[in-house]
Automatic annotation (TrEMBL):
Listed name of the protein: Endonuclease/exonuclease/phosphatase domain-containing protein
Positions of the Endonuclease/exonuclease/phosphatase domain: 77-331
Alphabetized SUPFAM superfamilies for the sequence: DNase I-like
Gene3D superfamilies: Endonuclease/exonuclease/phosphatase (3.60.10.10)
One MF annotation (Gene Ontology) recorded for this entry: catalytic activity
Organism: Chlamydomonas reinhardtii (Chlamydomonas smithii)
Length: 372
């Protein structure tokens, strides 16, 4: 038993040392990414580039006056929201669109919309639900003229996929995508870590079964994490490990993991790496928070980032919660253009989120979309 524990700990430490070495090799920093503001399309322009958008649609079953009493009922109605969602989806222009809160009953309506002409779609399989707990799933949309699906797997809180594409030197490359919608209860951070770890383990298992080194893979991990950048999910993704006994600052009585865990990927958060900070991705009257993230392996450089608020709506979004007449979800979409780096020649920088403010200090983050 002791030998198994020592072996597990040794593997975790080795993985952490490998990831740390990769980050030190890229210490000098990445160029500031170009901003793409809604409604401009977030399109890739080179074979080595892949554009990715992540968007929690707000499931229609949740869009009720009881949940959102501050929103005019006609803005919550599906006909109004669907028209706005189609306009938003049509404007993305991304190679891959990762969706959360998709209702299976609405899937055919979504995937067959003229707004998504040129896309192929895949819906997560989460089985049957009930009236008390309806099934809400993730989905992937991609351009088959850019990417070819070679593998997919549904987990309880994740839709995993591998795509092939041709790079700028005529080589076929693999892109792995993990589309996550993690546990929403603030009292269950251990579930969020378990769900994240499970998704990464399945990616790693597929790569190893095909003779691929996980550390060399092009990987995107994105979605609605239901936790912030200073909490343990982002810490686990960035550091590559979590020590046993780790807790969240707001919930010290719940261990997110009892043993030290690790993953083999060197990941960076797209907006931090690209030099753009969104003030929030979800906004309700009592709280504006960033819960949605795009993490990418360090062989993917961020060349452009999506700013999801139109210039003409900056004043509106600063004073009005989501959803509203122009933004049909309680989340804003996020997106990035990622460029495959063939060698670790130029550095990307350490994209570790800044340290949180001390208790009682005012937050340093920008509070609205003015100036972006």
């Amino acid at each position: 038993m002791v030998s198994k524990v020592l072996l597990s700990t040794g593997i975790a430490v080795l993985g952490w040392l490998t990831i740390s070495k990769l980050r030190r090799a890229s210490r000098s920093g990445q160029r500031r990414a170009r901003k793409v503001r809604r409604p401009e399309a977030l399109q890739s322009s080179e074979p080595d580039e892949i554009s990715v958008v992540c968007y929690n649609l707000l499931a229609d079953v949740y869009a009720t006056p009881k949940r959102y009493p501050y929103v005019r009922p006609e803005w919550l109605a599906w006909p109004h929201r669907w028209a706005a969602l189609q306009q938003q989806l049509a404007s993305f222009g991304a190679d891959v669109i990762c969706l959360q809160e998709v209702e299976p009953a609405r899937w055919q309506e979504i995937v067959s919309s003229p707004a998504l002409a040129g896309y192929t779609g895949l819906l997560q399989d989460r089985g049957r639900g009930s009236d008390a707990a309806p099934v809400i799933t993730n989905a992937l949309l991609w351009r088959p003229d850019k990417l070819g699906l070679v593998w997919s797997e549904s987990r309880s809180r994740a839709l995993l996929a591998a795509f092939v594409f041709w790079d700028g030197v005529g080589q076929q490359q693999l892109l792995y995508v993990a589309n996550l919608h993690l546990e929403g209860s603030p009292y269950r951070p251990n579930d969020r870590i378990s769900q994240t770890r499970s998704a990464l383990q399945r990616l790693e298992a597929h790569q190893l079964s095909h003779g691929l080194s996980p550390g060399d893979a092009a990987v995107v991990v994105c979605g609605d994490f239901n936790s912030g950048r200073h909490e343990t999910v982002c810490s686990f993704l960035h550091r590559g490990r979590l020590e046993g006994g780790t807790t969240e600052p707001h919930l010290p009585q719940v261990e997110v993991t009892k043993t030290t865990i690790a993953h083999p990927y060197a990941l960076h958060e797209a907006y931090s790496s690209g030099g753009v900070e969104l003030p929030f991705t979800r906004k309700v009257p009592s709280l504006a928070s960033s819960l949605d993230f795009i993490w990418a392996s360090c062989n993917l450089e961020v060349t452009a980032l999506y700013v999801p608020v139109e210039a003409r709506h900056q004043g509106l979004i600063a004073h009005q919660a989501l959803p509203n007449q122009h933004y049909p979800s309680d989340h804003l979409p996020i997106g990035a253009v990622l460029k495959l780096k063939h060698f670790y020649v130029e550095a990307f920088g350490d994209a570790h989120p800044p340290q949180p403010p001390a208790p009682g200090d005012p937050p340093q983050a920008i509070q609205d979309f003015e100036g972006l």
